[in-house]
Model the fold of this input.
Amino acid sequence: MNTMDCVKVRDSILNTLSLDFKKLNFVPTLAVVVVGDDNAGKVYLNSIKKTAKKLGVDVITYIYPVNILEEDLIKNIQILNNDNNITSILIEMPLPNHINYSNISLAIAKEKDVDCIHPENIGLLLMNENKFTPCTPKSILSILDHYEIPLDGKHCVLIGRSNIIGKPLTSMLLERNATITICHSKTIDIGNTTNKGDILISAVGIPNFVTKDMVKDDAIVIDVGINRDKFNKVCGDVDFINVKDKCSHITSVPKGVGCITVTMLMKNVLTSCVIKGETNE
Ligand code: NAP
Done:
């Protein structure tokens, strides 16, 4: 078993990225839109601010009350779209239930959409013509690439089909010639599917969901989940202690996929700056 060192993966990407940011002749500004007062959201925001500071990216946070009307949120996003000083926009998810995800994703200027949620950006991803790439799927691929794990012809089993992880990741893995099976909450006898995967990627959100019997011998296991166990400790979806000796490679939680996600967000911030540079030429 080899626990993959995601901190090392992140630092190597960050080093290259920092050189790319130095080449810009303006200061990038990322607007982070937060609705409500969610604890996980605060942790994510702090992590964004920390990485942004290292790269010389300004972050402006716009915090709105949890009961903000959808139309008012859209008006505020449009102001950011039209503000020439804002290069990049991130809307923290999840949004409250009364706000429609599709309407918000459509409202963001597609050239500032660093979370890659605008339908046109997602469509371009499906055609492999995208400029922005969803951050968590991109982090997963960066780990596999760092460890030189080939995807061509491999059977990848994903658990989870969310708009931000499972769906875009499927498209990205297909582009790399993997064969993909997607499991979700309605999948029957899930273990009998997951234990066929050469590469098993779990993005469910339930501690200890993936048990040893669900994993193929010598599989590569990527744990995307960020959860709290009964002792309030951060943990993933995988029963790490019991699964680790069955697989050839595994990611841990914490210090797993999650530690790379913000770096991938900053890669998209750089992309939005390049687009701005091209537009102003
Ligand atoms: P989500 O939107 O709630 O999606 C969860 C997925 O898991 C859904 O597709 C759901 O199926 C499936 N699922 C739920 N219960 C299941 C069960 N009993 N059996 C099989 N499938 C089941 O969550 P998300 O936003 O994708 O996030 C998933 C996890 O990743 C969370 O722990 C989150 O904190 C973490 N996360 C990590 C990162 C990172 O950077 N590492 C980034 C974002 C999120 P249905 O579609 O049928 O409901």
Notes: Residues 258-280 form the longest helix (23 residues). DSSP finds ten helices and eleven strands in the chain. The radius of gyration is 19 Å.
